[in-house]
Structures are given as C-alpha cells and as structure tokens.
Amino acid sequence: MAGLGFVLLIFGVWATPGAAAELASHRAVYDLQLSKVESSADIAGLSGRMVLEWSGNSCDGYTLNQRLVTQLSDTDGGVSVRDLRMTSWESGDGDAFRYEVKRYNGAVLDETVSGFAERTVGNSSAVFSEPDGVELDLPEEIIFPSEFVRDLVAAARSGKSLVSATVFEGAETDRYFVVSSFIGKAGTLEIEAPAMEGEGLALIDTPSWPVQVSYFMPNDKEGLPDYQVSYRLFVNGVSANMRLDYGDIIIDGTLKDLTYLEQDPC
Question: 12 and 21 in contact (C-beta within 8 Å)?
C-alpha cells in the first residue's frame, strides 16, 4: 500500500492552455470511508475528510491547497489520526512547480517535503529545500499535477479514451510516476439531493465522465500499478464518486459540499 499520506492528482485545474476555457475555481469537501481492506493492512476501520481548494488561471498560474485528515483503528484496538497538508503553485505554462507537503501523526509533525521543480529542454529536475540538498532528475516529458488534469479534461472533451503521461507531484523525494488514464463515455451523475450540500447539487445535470487513473513506478517490470484512483470527472473541473485503490485497502470518497470561488480573469 502506498500509505495514507497520499496526494491526489485527480484535482486541480482543467483545460489545455490555449485550447479550452478556464474552468471553475472551487472548494470541495469529501467524506472518506473504508470500503475494503485485506488482513495484511492491519486496519480495522478508517474514516476521514478531505478538503481541496483550487484557484487561478493560465496567466498567473494555479494554486491548490489540500488537507486530508483520517482516523484509523488497527486490529489491536489502537487509534491514530493522520493529517496531510499540501499546498502547491504551478505556472500557467506548466514549466514551473512549487510545492510543500506536511505530514502529521496526531499533533506531531512527522515530515515536511518542499521544493521547486522546473521543466526545461534536456534538464528537468526537482530541487528540494526540505530535505535540504536533495535533487531529483526528471525526464524531459515530465508534467506537473495541474497540467496533467487539464490534459485529462481536454482529452475527455475531445472523445479520447486513453491518456498517458509522466507526472511529478512533489510528495516524495525519490519518485515520479508513469500514469495511464482510461476515460469512459460521457453522461450525467445521479445524486440524491440530501446527500450533497451547497452548490454541488447543480452537478446532477452537468456532463461528466468516469475516469480510472493508474500510477506506475518507472521501469516497472511486473506491469502492476502502485495505486489506482477512479472518480467522476465533470466538465467544470469538479470530481465526485472517488475510489482510492491501494491494493490491500480501498477508500471511497463522497463529495459532500461544493463552493465555487471568485474566478480571476486571465
């Protein structure tokens, strides 16, 4: 299992620069529940909440703030609370990416990962300020989270069913992912009105696609993903009906509240 300090690439900005309109800046709240667990995971229960806030445009860049808090109970009766906080900024052209990730165990800060990544011809890399002095070489075709999801939405809108990319998300000092995304047929989401609050009810009639995203380690010989995320992707950039599959544990995420933020013109 990749761990519960995961960073989700399924959120952020949406539309290819110069090829599609800016989509909605928003704050989304998701309830998390354990769907399935293998005995090897030593987890008896899990619940939590994730809050994502995205804003920006292709001129000034995109800012994503994410907080994920989970309460876990193990098979011996122990209970722990994990708290992931991430903030990032990505330039509108997708060439620069600044990131900071903090992982807490209860109130204790376990780890901080921060730095700056840049995509340049023949010399793409991520330079970390925490831990200090660490540098990760990146392939020339690397893209960062906002551009990845923007490309995914653009592909869905154009009718494509498969998108492949090499993605660096800034959560780890030693890895990037080769990502394969499968996009299903467009449709609309069926949601019972009492299940959602705020402006999210309007999503019921909004065009969307089912998406499954698989994350592979580079040079993987077995052909098995490190983890998978599936969700409903809306044309305005919001996501719902999440399922996070880490092999020995599967977590479902339900969109409970949605607020659209003031959109800065480009």
Answer: no
CB-CB neighbours of 134 under 10 Å: 14
Whole-number Å distance between alpha carbons of 166 and 127:
18
Q: How far apart are CA 257 and CA 31, in angstroms?
A: 9
Q: How far apart are the C-alpha atoms of 129 and 1, rounded to whole Å?
A: 27
Q: Mean pLDDT by 10-residue block, N- to C-terminus, for the chain (266 residues)?
A: 45 39 81 90 90 90 94 90 96 96 96 97 94 95 90 91 95 94 85 56 80 92 89 87 92 91 80
Q: Could you tell me if 7 and 217 are in contact, meaning their C-beta atoms sit under 8 angstroms apart? A: no
Q: 260 with 26: CB under 8 angstroms?
A: yes
Determine contact, residues 152/146, Cβ cutoff 8 Å.
no
Residue type present at position 52: L
Cβ-contact 188, 219 below 8 angstroms: no
Q: In sequence order, what are the residues at sequence separation of 6 or more whose Cβ sits closer than 8 angstroms to the Cβ of residue 228? A: 212, 213, 214, 215, 244, 245
Model-level pTM?
0.86
Core vs surface per residue 11-48: b (16+ CB within 10 A) or e: bbbbbbbeebebbbbbbbbbebebeebeeebebeebeb
Answer for the pair 244, 31: CB distance below 8 angstroms, yes or no.
Answer: no
